[in-house]
Each structure stands twice: as C-alpha cells, then as structure tokens.
Amino acid sequence: MLDIKWIRDNPKALAEALVKRGWEAPTASSEVDRVIAADEARRRHLTELQEKQERRNAASKEIGNAMRAGDTVKAEALKAEVADIKTFVQDGEARERDLDAALRDVLAVLPNIPLDDVPLGSDETDNVEVRRVGKRNEWNWAKEHFEIGEALQQMDFERAARLSGSRFTVLSGQIARLERALGQFMLDLHTTEHGYTEVQPPLLVRDDAMFGTGQLPKFAEDLFRTADDFWLIPTAEVSLTNLVREEILSNETLPRRYTALTPCFRSEAGSAGKDTRGMLRQHQFYKVELVSITDKDSSIDEHERMTACAEEVLKRLELPFRTVVLCTGDMGFGARKTYDIEVWLPGQSAYREISSCSVCGDFQARRMNARYRSAEGKGNEFVHTLNGSGVAVGRALIGVMENYQNQDGSVTIPEALRSYMGGMERIDAV
After folding, report:
1. Neighbours of 25 (CB within 10 A)
2. Is 60 a known active-site residue?
3. pTM strictly above 0.70
4. Is 266 part of the annotated catalytic residue set?
C-alpha cells in the first residue's frame, strides 16, 4: 500500500507511475483524484470530530461555572449542547471507521511505484536482458518434458485428469524422486550457504495475510478458497512475509531471511489455452521460496543478493539461463523492481521463467503494519520486503529433464543431485 502523505504531496508523480504501469492517462488521473478525495473527506471529518470534542470539554467546564453562578437556564442549555455533541461523537466514530475503510479500499488497488531504473515498456517484449549464463542445448531431436516423462512411464496426465481435472500431474518412480531431490537440494543450498532460515509455514491463511502481501483484493480470482474461508497459498511468500505482520522489529535483527519448500495452489484464471500440455502451468506445484525483511537502506542490495542466490541453483545444476529485468508494464502488482530468471528448454527452443525476484519497498509492510526501530533512535519505520523463487521445483524438473535428456529417452542425473538420488546417474524407462 502506498503512503497517503506521499500521494497528497505527489499526485502528478503517482499518475505518471500508473501510466508507466499501463494505465490510461485519464483513468490514472481520475483514480488519483478519487484517492485524494477519500483522504480529504476523512481528514475533514477528523477535524470536525476533534473540534466537537474540544467544544464538549469546554462546555462541560462552563456547566460547572454556570451552576456555581446560579444560572440554571444556561447550565441546562449547556447540558443539552453536551448531550448533542456526545451523540455526534458517537456517530462520528462510526463514520470515521467508514471513511477509514473507504480510503483503505481505494489505496488497496493501487500498484507499487516502479524504481527509476526500471525500463519503460508495456509487456514482456520490452523486458531487458541483464545476463546470459551457460551454453544452450539446441538439439534437433530434443523432446519436451511431457514427451520424455510419458515415454519413461513416470509422468501421467491422464490419471491426474481423472482424479482432479486439467492442470494436474501424477509423477511416479524416479521422476517423483528427482522432483523431491530438487527441493531438498535447494533448501540445503539456501540454508547452509546463503543464510536463509528454513520455515514450515501454514498452507492455509486468513484474509489479512493475503491482503498483507497484495493478493487481495485484486487477485481473488487467481486463488483457491476453502468452504470455511481459508485461502490456499499461491506462494509461500504469503506465509513467510506475514511472519512479521503487526510487529515492531529490532533493527539489529535485520535482515531476516526465510526460505520454505511448500506446495502452491493457483487457479490460473485467465490462462486458458496457455501451456495446456505438461507441467509448466499447474494448479498445484512445489516451490522453494525466498523472503527477506530488511531496513529501508538495505533492500536494493538485498535484491541483487537474492537474485544471485536463485541463480546459483541453476549454476549448480548446470542449466543454461538468462536473467531479465521486467519493464514497468510487466511487473507484478506489489513490486518496485523485478528480475526474472529464465531457464533454457531445448524441447521448446525457448527460455521460460523459473524464478521471479522482487523488491517491494515498504508497500507490503504498510498493509501488514510491520515496522522496525530506527537505528538512529528516531522512532519506528516500515520494513522493506523482498520475495523470490529459489526456485520453482516443477520448472526445475522440466529444465533438468529437457537439458539432460539423451537420444535413447533416458535422463542423466545432474552431478549436484546424485547424492539425493542414492548415487543414481540416470533415469531409464521402468
């Protein structure tokens, strides 16, 4: 959530930022006007409420003076005035809650402000490549992961569809073990070498947690909700970031770095027709998530560090990849800047996203009311939050299967995973 004081002082800058994010200029201007109008209505009411309370206090003193002076008529008139003010204040407190909610509602749908160095653009075609690592495998005989997995008889989409419908997969045998190995490898790397603390967080969360990280209210259709009003997490970012909600942290404890391997659940609303074959876009998948909680001065450097941690996963697996910085029109709702890491898939002859690392500034912290004590002793400030995939396990499995496939249909196990696979060097058909 954006700072309303900043919006009041910089309405033009906000409108320009919304246009950079793809809003039409008239829509951006009218939305900024709507936010400021909601804030002004709230501020006017608070001023009137304060004035009425001050008058009530003064009138209460005047009643005593009138009684001592024997002026019962004036005293009774003052008592009636105080009673009227009391009613106004009681009604005014309810009105204040309504105005607070109205302001929160208009602020809640505003996206974050891009950093100055984020490239301008409208969609993924305007993203800018930062670096490319590894030599791409470009075999004319390369197959896609689902062709490999089905031929090995260890990846079954038909049975999954009978169980759950489309966008689910049943893995079995050594491919199932390979996916498990990937998750364990990533956790071990991030906890033993990158300084992240492993967490086993809840997979079901309440509305406030989803609001805190920005999934609600804007993206409700992308989520799964239970009958008793819990939400299934679309990413462990939700649980991990909300660990510090409604807390005031000591500056000395920052940065805090968390990681978790969890299932993730997404409805994939709006993705009809996209990646319908295979495991690239699933309703349920595993991901190793990285979350950092920092002070305001450290978040930019932490963003580079987090991205390097995610890249290291692919380097250890010896998977070719490239890193791009997303343009203003392609960034996520809560991000100020995002790096996408894209793994090379020879079966598709394309780079596909496997990790997205974002710095959010204090945008999520304002929604969660998560703060820290300033090192200078100048009060409390909102923390800065970052999140990234370290990395998506299912997509890493796809990357391994396609880049380590052999012409005979087998899949070689990357060196980094063999200890997790009981020394196995390759997967053959059952």
Report:
1. 11
2. no
3. yes
4. yes
